[in-house]
Amino acid sequence: KHLVFKAILEELDQNLVHVNSGEEALKEVLRRDIAVILLDVNMPGVDGFETAALIRRRKRSTHIPIIFITANYGDEARVAQAYALGAVDFMVSPIVPEVLRSKVKVFVELYMLAQLARKQAEEHVALATERAARAEAERASRRSAFMANASATLGRSLAVMAATRELP
User: Of 106, 114, 47, nearest to 81 (Cα)?
Assistant: First the structure.
């Protein structure tokens, strides 16, 4: 299956991560940012449904789109269970390559747009922070100039007062 999915999805030119169990999938979800998860219901150890439930429990991965891909489990109860766990789709083998590629491409593009929006928001915050710091520095400079001028004026005033006291 991994080789078939790799062949189908390689033209998207994305980093594909293949795992062989639910436990490995959970480790990868914690280790890296992921655009979409293709998840088989039948996996050794923790099955696909349990894996999806565990993925959804973590704040970092709660919104990652999950597409279930499986054979022989396309009954309504399993499909309903997949959607209840937050699946965005449930595909039964054999997979039509163009359909899978198109679905994955949509989620990759959405992920990339979200990353771009996040980056632009961070840049906007950094720019606003820089502007606020610059404005504060300008205010501090004006206060400092005012204090220096006031100090010089007071100094001259004290000198005049001292001179007037010494005059007959």
Answer: 47
